[in-house]
Amino acid sequence: YNPELIRNISIIAHIDHGKTTLVDRILEITKSIDNRKMHDQYLDMMDIEQERGITIKAQPVKIMYPAKDGNTYEINIIDTPGHVDFTYEVSRSLAACEGAVLLVDASQGVEAQTVANTYLAIENDLEIIPAVNKIDLPNANVEETLAEIEDLIGISADDALKVSGKTGEGVEELLEEIIKRIPAPTSKGTSEDKLKALIFDAKYDKYRGVIIYTRIYGGTVKTGDKIMTMSNKETYEVVEVGIFHPEMQKTDSLSAGEVGYIIAGIKEVELARVGDTITSATDPIDEPLPGYKEVKPMVYAGIYPGVPDYYEELRKALDKLKLNDAALTFNPEHSPALGFGFRCGFLGLLHMDVVRERIEREFELAIILTAPNVVYKAKLKNGEEIEIHDPTQFPDQDLLEEVYEPYVKLDIITPTEYMGGLMGVVQNEKRGEFVSVSNAGKDRVVMHFEVPLGEIIFDFFDRMKAISRGYASMDYELIGFRKSDLLKVTILVNREPVEALSFIAHRSKLYEMSKKMVEKLKDLIPKHQFEIPIQAKADGRIIARSTIKAYRKDVLAKCYGGDITRKMKLLEKQKEGKKRMRQIGRVTIPQNAFLAILKIN
Ligand code: GDP
To answer: Taking every annotated instance into account, which residue ranges of this chain make up the domain Tr-type G (predicted)?
Structure first.
């Protein structure tokens, strides 16, 4: 153990800019571990992460690099989650490092999220090494990329490195620069200090309980030690400590400057929160590390069992997911339309989607997901302040003093030619306020806006990509709650209010959204043997209406007496489909109707 020879780094890169390839190349060059194991390690990750090309857990790897100065350095590379839903987790992973490589694809240029993450790194006092990647590509535009790094991030690109993770060119130089430019962790504490360790991630293992991913700032931790998590003062006895090689490898101890894991019989990740500080239970430090916060869900949606009998199964599935996902919240709720289910809180839409997919795949449960909404706040006339997680909680107009909605600072980087189009959408359709624009290299700009979170979270990303032919990128960050003129719209199907379809709208969009919603529902709800009116009600009156005409439905009619197996299959399919339907009064409403609000644009 020689902390002078440790370097803890992150690689900040946009998806597809070559982070995985570069890390693979580094592993190969350093021969410090079996390359194949690394792949297995990556393959161990959730399928969903794999398929979507995003990382949710902060996977670390330790490599040994014999440098030109004759010393062998230990470099810990901490991978960071790659999505705006997980900004807090990114900031905590960065807090575990002294430096970061800013990796930019020379054929793509700097993307908005990369800028945001680099700022997070700068806020955490990290030393940044800019590196332009994929220089082997014929359309690599190194000079322009360097200019963008200077313009967008405001750091000098004079000392930037030029690398190709693919050919290996420049990778050794990069490792040498990491050794030279990124400080050893020694200035932040020594092994003589009291124990002070940052939890930068945690994973639940069904045999061993919670595995804490940690960076030790001060002191030493070993098996048998009594430790304490500072936010909740819970104490545990350490069962095992070790490093990521990249597979978990047991060691005698972990000391100041090192990155590794701690297992201490902790039952769920909620008790080992990202950003919390671990200290000794017998000789604790006074002050935890800065930066800890409890992450709060920003998006809520209802999850109901596809078949009502499966309520208990759904609860078990959510309980299990929660063991490994501290950010997920859920509370039982009952809806007249959907029966018993749960109101769930998520960090964002991606988080919601991952949870939905895991329930369906890992637990094989069909679920009904209701339209997500952002969290609102309201002040009532009696002075009470409430949070609104669900349109049904929206107070009656006569009780209501003021409503507030979350706003974000939105940054978009785009080629100049799409600036007008994007500006139009953000200002005219998304209630955004333009703040400023500045140059980002040649023929690109970065635009800053302030926009309600609810306006950009649902379909804005796709709109932006369509307008800019895929070239623009965005990032956003919560800036607070602002007073807003919001109303609740109730949907009536066959004259019965269906709360699960109600939504909250800004007054300026009230009529447009209500009209689109009733039209969309008309398409999504199948015809019945009687006519069904669909109405939208707000401010005490009906403001939009559509009608589903009566129709006699007969599935078998389509088969024209064809062979029996085909008929059977069709019937079977219907049965499957029905699971996701809900009977409301006399009307059957399919699952996708509950998501109609997401599809009205
Ligand atoms: P990640 O999403 O940042 O981890 O990116 P990957 O490492 O998966 O790379 C994305 C794509 O870019 C893959 O098709 C790689 O083969 C390719 N790629 C990565 N590095 C280089 C490079 O240096 N040169 C070239 N030509 N292609 C690269």
So the answer is: 4-186
Residues that constitute the known binding site for GTP: 16-21, 133-136
27 C-alpha to ligand 1 centroid (Å): 15
Return the structure tokens found at 480.
Answer: 């607070």
Give the other-Cβ count within 10 Å of 473's Cβ: 24
- Could you give the CA distance from residue 103 to residue 163 in angstroms, rounded to a whole number? 9
DSSP class of residue 110 equals -
- Residues of the chain above pLDDT 70, percent: 91
58-86 mean pLDDT: 88
Closest listed residue to residue 310, CA positions, set 501, 580, 595: 580
Tokens at residue 104, please?
């930019």
How far does the centroid of ligand 1 lie from the alpha carbon of residue 165, in Å? 7
Q: Ligand 1 centre and the CA of 166: distance in Å? A: 7
Peptide bond connecting 246 to the previous residue in cis, omega within 30 degrees of 0: yes
- Distance, in Å, from the CA atom of 405 to the CA atom of 483, rounded to the nearest integer, reads 7
Q: Which residue's CA is minimally distant from atom 14 of ligand 1?
A: 16
Mean pLDDT of the region 527-532 = 90
Lowest mean pLDDT among 62-71, 237-246, 571-580: 571-580
Instruction: Give tens-digit pLDDT for 438-454.
Output: 998 888 999 999 999 99
Strands 60-66 and 209-218: unpaired
What is the Cα–Cα distance from 577 to 553, expressed in whole angstroms?
15
Would you state the structure tokens that stand for residue 415, as one six-digit string? Answer: 């080629």
Instruction: Concatenate the DSSP letters of all residues of 144-208 into one string.
Output: HHHHHHHHHH----TT-EE--TTT-TTHHHHHHHHHHHSPPGGGG--TTSPPEEEEEEEEEETTT
For residue 22, give the nearest of 186, 200, 178, 149 by alpha carbon: 178
Residue 80, H or E segment: none
Query: Closest Cα to residue 120, out of 83, 91, 84?
Result: 91
Ligand 1 atom with the shortest distance to the CA of 82: 2
What is the rounded distance in angstroms from the CA atom of residue 561 to the CA atom of residue 559? 5
Tell me the CA distances in angstroms from 46 to 23, 42, 52, 287, 550, one per residue in order: 19, 9, 10, 36, 46
Say how many Å lie between the CA of residue 53 and the centre of ligand 1. 12
φ/ψ (deg, to 5) at 343: -90, 120
- Gap between the Cα atoms of 32 and 471, Å rounded: 38
- Ligand 1 site residues, Cβ closer than 6 angstroms: 13, 15-21, 53, 133-134, 136-137, 164-166
Separation of alpha carbons 80 and 126, rounded Å: 14
Q: Which atom of ligand 1 is nearest to 24's Cα?
A: 7
| 3-state secondary structure (DSSP) of residue 460 | helix
User: Which atom of ligand 1 lies at the shortest distance from residue 23's CA?
Assistant: 7
Query: Can you tell me the mean pLDDT for 68-96?
Result: 90
- Identify which of 150, 108, 151, 107 has the alpha carbon closest to the alpha carbon of residue 130: 150
